[in-house]
Amino acid sequence: MRTGSLPALPSRLAVASALTACCACLAPNLARAEGSLGAGAELASTQALRVTTDIFVDVINPAVETIVWTGKGNVTVTDPLGATVGTFASGATITPSMSGSYKLDLLENQFDVDGNGGLVNGTQVAWDVTLFVSGVPRDGRVYSFAWGFNTGGFNMASATNASFYARVPGGDTESFAVMELRTDGLAGFIFEVQGNSTGVRGPNAGRSVPEVGNSAANEYQMYLNPPDDATYSFLGPQVRDFSFRGGTEITGGVPACDEFVGGATTGEFVFTSNVVGSFHLVCDLNRDGRFDIVDTGDFLFLGAAVAGTNRVPFDGRDNNGNPFPVGDHQCSVRLTVGEFHYVGRDIETSFRGLRMFQVGANGSLTPLNMFWNDALVQANATTMPAPYAFISASTSGPLGLNSGDPLDPPVPLGETVTPPGANARAWGDFVAMGGSGTGKGNEAYLDTYTWLSEDVSAPITIHSVDGSIDSDMDGLTDYTERCITGTLTDSADSDGDTVNDFVETRGGMPNVNTDMDLLVDALDTDDDGDCVPTADEDPDHDGDPTNDDSDGDTRPDYRDADDDGDGIGPCDEDANMNGDPLDDDADMDGIPDYLELDSDGDCALRATIPNILCQDNLDQCPLVPEDANDYMDDDGCPEPDGDADGVPDAIDNCPVIPNTDQANLDDDDDGDVCDEDIDGDGLRNICEIPTTDACPVACADVCADLPSCSGCAATDPRDADSDDGGLSDGAEVARGGDPLNEDDDVLPGLISGGGVYTCGVGHAGSPLAPLLAFVALGLALVVRRGSRS
Are 60 and 175 contacting, i.e. CB atoms less than 8 angstroms apart? Predict the structure, then answer.
């Protein structure tokens, strides 16, 4: 019967102190060489070592410790760093230089072989390895990861009746506990003794299996005596947050999925652990309400646990490779510390059987519950010898078989017989046929295991579903919609955007999200996030947005954030900013701007302006068409025309007064309508008026140099030379001439009057005054000479 809990263990410090004291006081009387040599040896002399065995020796204090090998042939010694120390003959002293494990590599079998490589009976050589501390032998230092023996036969005389001590992890890197594997009648002829944390490799971990196609790791240090190098302590395991997620066959599935299609999809069990250990993931497939690790009817996955988050992949198949039946299944996980599997390879007999004990720091032994499941090899089981002449048990039962009081003799458990005090895992009959072994252990791995402490999770429910059901007939199975796409199983169009879920998930892919917002396309009414609902991205109005591709880029409009390919998204082509690009049509041609490369329609001007930048992404004014304002440039924008006369301001000779004809009599920079001197004769238009009109005050500045100027000339404001005399009106006025009398154009001032400004014609301010003075002087000289004569 399984013990409910193990005795509380002392602290690591207490363990180490107790162990040291124990070893110190016992060493003088009990310490000896470790091996098969001499009286009281751990192994019988028939347990000859094979050359494949690597022996290790723990050195703790190299200053006072030495090693001696005794046996057949030499050994090559390697230090803890892997460097070769040397080759040593039997009896030679090996002096270590550092602490750690030294490896002794046998160079010979500890027996003679015949021409076929078999053992020659009677040639077995007893051997041992001794570690001396200050010249005193010390036990508990010699181990191997796999003790390889050749005992020379399958019979009882060749059997091993010894104990091996496994140093097992105690949950972290500092804690190591010890278990005793006690054998009684272990007969395998050529066999190994080793141990690990999970049993055979692969999906049958925790089960006994045929030898072919299987293997087991040599993980643990197997000592011949309780090891010095152990704390004899372990941590209490705690399992938390046990859960299951389906749909892991594809990345990005629905996180909350707790279902799978047996044998077709995958999932993942997750749990957290506070220790390094082992786990047993069990699902109650036979629905008997028990999570039975040795019942073939239940599912078992046994593996190594790490401290932290553990993820266990699941393919929806049972241990026989068959899909889980459709329905709900309860699953639980057991987390263990110090789990030890002895996986006996090709061992025909174990009678009266194996037992397992926890070893305390003070040497105490606590019986442990042993577990096994031989269902895959039980057909080869044979009747054991008397007085237990019955078939050995195929399983330990769900609670395991307790090893009982260490002082009690081993009593095998039978398949159909449970003798009083049954406490041993046994099989076989010491019989060989034709030189080969028999029984279920022959050419098989028989796994027997136990652990020190456990924690079991609360059960969870997982759902195995029929992967062919498609309730809404959208082309996606219900499983796919619940676990991969996250769409509805009762609606073929989950978001009601007129596009089928199958299409919007691209055939059942997860996380199809065109606009990378918070909603996948199949749940998003605007798949591409372009402000135009998917249902409205159907320009041909056939009710199917999937066949509309306005810009011909092979992406349908409902998945294209720029339907017309003009470099401007529909959201930005919403000119009236009402959130609906459907009602914006700059050129009023009935096609919304977001579906036109040229929203304002000015590409129609290419015949006149070949290089016009009219496409929306190039057009500087994509919503306002270029006009016919002499096309000053090709930027796609209409030219500024402040007076709206059809002539761009840049070339308008009068940009503030409409003058479509651009009339400019004097060809200056100002058009006639805004030119104060239309004829360019130097007289402002307002000063060239009939004499009967009042002369504007503004005309006074025309005669700035003629103080007596008080009137206006009746000259023609549109004729620069009103009298056609050869000088402009302004020039004649400026020199005091008459702009209406052609005769004085050559000799100014000789004729005065005649509708001219009432300015003194001989005014000193006139620019011709010096010339007039010169003429007058000439006339005076002529008169004087005439009078002298």
Answer: no
